[in-house]
């Protein structure tokens, strides 16, 4: 049975339709990440699950019970907020114990549970300190401690790492993942950071303009995006979108995309109705930087297309080198090995893995080759 | 070759001289402002002879408490107790109601965006403009010269100020703290008690002190609405100003009695007061 079931949920802020009829089911123990750009409705959805916002239409069910009119404290949820929400006038122990005291838990049990949560998060030595005496990472641990100490049925995280610096964010991301493996509770995590979404999630729910654009495992969304938005949102650096026109291959097998009027890229994709209907029309060829390689001396592998390009910009990162190349009028980024450095203006040959490429109808924004 | 002579610093720009000047000016200002307080205070310990002596007696030869004893013997000191009861009760009630109203305005947008401005506009009414209609009303209800009559009036007059000030302090509390408490197991009342009050503590104290001082210093309402039972010290002091002569010894002693409660309140809560007032200042 789903631990959380949302059916036809609508939420308005005045004239703004923030959540537009969302249907979602989350299984027990699943780590679900709601991801999307600012204003897509992900935090509103989370707050509605928590009971901090009231939905205008639709239902929220937790463990089979409709909780639309149940107060937040009676929903058996725990929530971690973006700015930690620690009480500045209480020490760490009292902050963690707050929820237990509010629920009139026996004193000895509070002591035991707070100490156990603190041990789990390695903050046992900080229990006497006030929040202002803690670093950002320590505060975040306390906030997580306050959530896990309650043994709630559902854990909600509202962009919990966005106030931390990059290094600490990586560290805490690992901590949260480990925590989920240890306590194995249903978690819903909101972020706008696709790396967080990809690394943490069992399932990603990608939202756009108050609607679910696509949901599935991180790999599924990454490999088989359904829309241009999904293709562009996941992956860093972003996918390359190359405008062109779809045509039938001159050899009569498969298709080809004509870029910039005279660059023809053969594509032996299996025909489907949408592809056939798009023949002769403008399309966008979407290719991830990691699917573009430096051409070797051998012939290109099956499904790969070899193209000459001009190097425009080289960005070494230490582990990889991102190279922006010009193909006709279009710039595209390729991901090379760290030491594969080229000079701007140099002409090189690239092998593009067309088996991983995606074809998009620019009019609808839908992927048409899958 | 000898080094060129270093030009000497002008006398008035030397750090020690500047510091000395600063202290001298501060001291002079302190004397100017504190002298009336000192004079009032010291006069309450003088004999009538010393009060009217010329040249003035800057400090009495011996401290005597006769002026205070007379106030207690005649029963005049009870007016300070009356003021204390009226100011304390109205402050507590106004703070409780006002904070809840402010919370409602801030978190539930009660009355829309402009209700708060409408409420504070009530403070623009000069008390003297409404004191006679209120007097007639109180005569009708039989509330003249009663504790509850004046407590109600002071509470009503303090509420707009309390609501306005507490609204600012509550707005400064991050809403996530309250939401976190709601999720963790608190109801709204518990949130108010366990989160909002502690978070707005400085603002609460600062507002309470000013509310108390308003009621403590009121003269107009107390003059019109009291007779014999709940006369306040501000009204009592005016009884000592006569057409033929003024009872300076009583005036000074009563004034000192009237000053002490406020002095001790402010001194005790100074730490919160400064923080509360500066928080309000930042909020604008």
Supply the number of helical segments of chain B: 14
Largest interface: A-B, 23 and 18 residues
How big is the Rg of chain A?
25 Å
Q: How big a fraction of the residues of chain B is strand?
A: under 5%
* Shape summary of chain B: flat
- Nearest-integer average pLDDT of chain A: 91
Content of β-strand of chain A: 35-45%
The total number of structural domains of chain B is: 2
Query: Biggest sheet of chain B, in brief?
Result: none
CATH topology category name of the largest domain in chain B: MetI-like fold
The CATH homology group name of the largest domain in chain B: MetI-like
Helix content of chain A: 10-25%
Q: For the record, what CATH class of the largest domain in chain B applies?
A: Mainly Alpha
The percent range for helix content of chain B is over 70%
What does this structure look like?
Chain A is α+β, with helices and mostly antiparallel strands. Chain A contains nine helices and 21 strands. Chain A has a six-stranded mixed sheet, sandwiched between helices. A six-stranded antiparallel sheet of chain A has the order 13-12-11-14-20-21. Chain A has a five-stranded antiparallel sheet with strand order 15-19-16-17-18, with no helix packed on it. In chain A, helix 2 (92-102) runs parallel beside helix 4 and helix 3 (107-120) packs across helix 4 (136-148). The longest helix of chain A is centred in the middle third of the chain and has 18 residues, at 166-183. Chain B has 284 residues and is mainly α. Chain B folds into two domains: 11-64, no CATH class; 71-283, MetI-like (MetI-like fold). Helix content of chain B is 72%, strand content 0%. In chain B, helix 4 packs parallel to helix 7, helix 4 packs across helix 10 and helix 8 crosses helix 9 (188-199). Chain B is flat, with a radius of gyration of 25 Å. The interface between A and B is medium-sized, with 23 and 18 residues.
């Amino acid at each position: 049975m789903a631990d959380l079931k949302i059916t036809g949920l609508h939420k308005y802020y005045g004239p703004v339709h923030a959540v537009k009829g969302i249907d979602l089911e989350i299984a027990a123990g699943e780590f679900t990440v709601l991801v999307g750009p600012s204003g897509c409705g992900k935090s509103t959805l989370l707050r509605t699950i928590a009971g901090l916002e009231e939905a205008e239409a639709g239902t929220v069910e937790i463990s089979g019970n409709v909780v639309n009119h149940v107060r937040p404290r009676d929903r058996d949820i725990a929530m971690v907020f973006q700015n930690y929400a620690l009480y500045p006038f209480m020490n760490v122990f009292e902050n963690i114990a707050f929820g237990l005291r509010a629920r009139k838990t026996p004193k000895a049990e509070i002591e035991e549970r707070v100490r156990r949560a603190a041990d789990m998060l390695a903050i046992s030595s900080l229990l006497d300190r006030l929040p202002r005496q803690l670093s950002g990472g320590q505060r975040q641990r306390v906030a997580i401690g306050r959530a896990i100490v309650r043994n709630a049925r559902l854990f909600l995280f509202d962009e919990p790492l966005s106030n931390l610096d990059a290094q600490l964010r990586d560290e805490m991301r690992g901590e949260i993942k480990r925590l989920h493996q240890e306590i194995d509770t249903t978690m819903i995590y909101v972020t706008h950071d696709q790396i967080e979404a990809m690394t943490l999630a069992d399932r990603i729910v990608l939202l756009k303009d108050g609607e679910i654009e696509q949901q599935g495992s991180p790999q599924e969304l990454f490999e088989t995006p359904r829309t241009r938005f999904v293709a562009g949102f996941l992956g860093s650096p972003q996918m390359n979108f190359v405008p062109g026109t779809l045509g039938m291959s001159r050899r009569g097998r498969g298709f080809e995309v004509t870029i910039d009027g005279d660059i023809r890229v053969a594509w032996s994709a299996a025909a489907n109705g949408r592809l056939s209907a798009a023949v002769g029309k403008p399309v966008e060829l979407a290719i991830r930087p990691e699917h573009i390689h430096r051409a070797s001396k051998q012939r290109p592998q099956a499904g790969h297309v070899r193209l000459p390009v001009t190097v425009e910009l080289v960005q070494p990162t230490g582990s990889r080198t991102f190279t922006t190349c010009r193909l006709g009028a279009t710039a595209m980024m390729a991901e090379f090995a760290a030491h594969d450095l080229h000079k701007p203006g140099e002409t090189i040959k690239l092998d593009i893995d067309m088996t991983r490429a995606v074809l998009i109808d620019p009019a609808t924004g839908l992927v048409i080759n899958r | 070759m000898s080094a060129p002579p270093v030009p000497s610093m002008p006398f008035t720009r030397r750090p020690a001289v500047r510091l000395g000047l600063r202290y001298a000016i501060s001291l002079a200002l302190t004397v100017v402002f504190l002298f009336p307080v000192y004079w009032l205070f010291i006069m309450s310990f003088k004999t009538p002879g010393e009060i009217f002596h010329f040249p003035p007696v800057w400090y009495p030869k011996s401290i005597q408490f006769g002026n205070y004893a007379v106030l207690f013997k005649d029963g005049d000191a009870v007016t300070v107790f009356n003021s204390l009861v009226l100011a304390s009760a109205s402050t507590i009630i106004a703070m409780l109601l006002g904070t809840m109203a402010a919370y409602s305005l801030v978190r539930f947008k009660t009355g829309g965006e402009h209700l708060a401005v409408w409420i504070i506009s009530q403070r623009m009414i000069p008390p003297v403009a409404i004191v006679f209609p209120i007097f007639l009303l109180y005569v009708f209800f039989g509330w003249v010269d009663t504790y509850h009559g004046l407590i109600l009036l002071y509470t009503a007059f303090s509420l707009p100020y309390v609501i306005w000030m507490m609204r600012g302090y509550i707005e400064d509390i991050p809403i996530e703290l309250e939401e976190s408490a709601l999720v963790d197991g608190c109801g709204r009342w518990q949130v108010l008690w366990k989160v909002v009050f502690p978070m707005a503590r400085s603002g609460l104290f600062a507002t309470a002190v000013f509310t108390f001082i308003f009621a403590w210093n009121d003269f107009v309402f107390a003059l019109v609405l009291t007779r014999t039972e709940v006369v306040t010290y501000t009204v009592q002091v005016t009884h000592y100003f006569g057409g033929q002569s003024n009872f300076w010894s009583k005036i000074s002693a009563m004034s000192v009695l009237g000053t002490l409660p406020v002095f001790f309140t402010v001194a005790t809560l100074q730490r919160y007061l400064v923080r509360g007032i500066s928080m309000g200042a930042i909020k604008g």
